[in-house]
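Researcher: Batch entry, complex prediction.
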Amino acid sequence: MPFSEDDLRQALKRKDPGPEFTRRVMERLNERETESKASAREKRGRRVFWLPQMRFAPALACALALALAVGGWIGYQSYQEHEQQVRTAERQRKLEEQLAKREAILALRITSEKLNHVLRKVNSALPPDVKIRRERL
Amino acid sequence: MPDGQQEDLMTASLEQAAQGDAAAFAQIVSSHQAMVFSIAWHYLQDRSLAEDVAQEVFLELYQNLTAIQSASHLTYWLRRVSVHRCIDLARRRTHRREQAMDGLPEPATQNAIADPVLMARLRETLDALPEKQRMVIILRYQEDLGPAEIAELLRMPVNTVKSTLHRSLDDLRRKLARKLGDLRYAIF
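Model: Structure tokens for the complex:
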């Protein structure tokens, strides 16, 4: 059975979805507007308490890790420097102590020499039966 | 009502709708629902899907009202978006048809059909055509568009549209003849 172009036009004639269609579209429109308002409110509320966007989270994490690494390295360097200073100061203090000790011993020796000299002088001036004896403390 | 007057009215409705007038938007929907729904219905052959697509197209229109400049631009925009939504949906769809056309009531048409058997067979045969051929036939015979307009809507060269149209009609004739031959064989 052949068909004409008019038959095809007739078969593909526009069909009306019915009078309720417009109402259903308007209902969906209202629903969508209500939903979008609610979600906008929710988003605003969420932004007050939470991070606004997680879009930049990987970049943020990388930057944070880098900052931590650099901070750690700088901290370690300054700790090392401080330790070095403490060790140098300790060595210096020990050297000074040793020097002071040597000087004190030398001073004591000189004093001892002087005292012995004075004792010898005094003993030579005294009669032979009277002698001052040197006593150890 | 003369065409010019109708176009002026539609342009006025567009302006009002763009300013948030719901009644004006409802008027636009009501005037174009048959066109949008029919493109989807003839292409998808599924009433509920066609209605979903048509509703989505009008919701999208509501969001783009400010970009529409005139009544003719509105018609062009609605046709273009309907065509592309249908093609997108058909590509996504895994199950070709959830409900057969035969099981559902036919949507209202304006005039009585000449030969109901031929019309039904024509629509069935059209459904068996490849997607692009089907859309070209729908735009040519439902919307009465010329090859140049179809080419613009489908972003195809005009000569491709012409050859597709020619091939589609040949396929349609051949498939319909086979179908009606089978029918005759079944009856006699």
